[in-house]
Amino acid sequence: MANKNKVKSESKASKNKVKAVFSKQRILTENSSEAREFYNQSRFGSILEDGQVQLSLHEAVYLMEKGKLEILDGRKKSLDFIDIMKKAKRDEPNFWIRYAVFKDLRERGYIVKTALKFGADFRVYDRGVKPGEDHARWVVYPVHEGSTLTWYEFAAKNRVAHSTKKRLMIGVVDDESDVTYWEVKWTRP
Predict the structure, then answer these.
(1) Is residue 23 pLDDT above 90, yes or no?
(2) Comparing C-alpha atoms, which of 57, 104, 105 is closest to residue 20?
(3) Binning pLDDT at 50, 70 and 90, where does residue 11 land?
């Protein structure tokens, strides 16, 4: 009897998850009001003309980890967390470092969006601010605690933040996936 109830609860939980397809580094949800709520409530992804929501890989993994999203491959086969991680790491070797920062910021209540057009990894909005209502406050670069930056790389990151009128934040991830943040500001002597 207990086994039968477990199967029922697992299938019920699976039905409540929004389905999405992982194809060519894009995650596209089904066209449903539940999928659009990801955007409307927490600004995950962007809504496409056909009503689907396109999620970044970081957003999709986060929603999957929270039990809100089921990711399918092109043949409609369900992918588990390990499958997704393998695919992500193949295309982006430091995916885990970036994901650790993304997850930590979302858990702290910030909205995190990609910042490729700014030449950064992420842009982060103050708590309570949604993209489109105001500008992002920070550009964030995730790094592993053992990695190094040259002065030229550091200056380039600082210049990107300054030219986009955002604050530079470095998210340093340790081996336990704990994140420490360092904010860099311009000062005049």
Answers:
(1) no
(2) 57
(3) very low
* Backbone conformation region of residue 43, classed left if phi is above 0, alpha if psi is from -120 to 50, else beta: left
The residue extents of the domains of the chain are: 2-90, 94-184
Residues with a known catalytic role:
125, 135, 166
By CB atoms closer than 10 A (0-12, 13-18, 19+), residue 76 is exposed
For 94-184, CATH number out of 3.30.2320.80, 3.40.630.30, 3.40.50.300, 3.40.1350.10 equals 3.40.1350.10
pTM: 0.85
Q: What are the pLDDT digits (tens) for 107-129?
A: 999 999 998 887 889 999 998 88
Residue type, 161: A
Burial class of residue 121 in the structure, from the number of CB atoms within 10 Å of its CB (0-12 exposed, 13-18 middle, 19+ buried): buried
Structure tokens at 63: 């929603």
Number of DSSP helices (H) and strands (E) in the chain, helices first: 6, 10
**In CATH, which of 3.40.1170.20, 3.90.320.10, 3.40.50.720, 3.30.450.40 is domain 2-90?**
3.40.1170.20
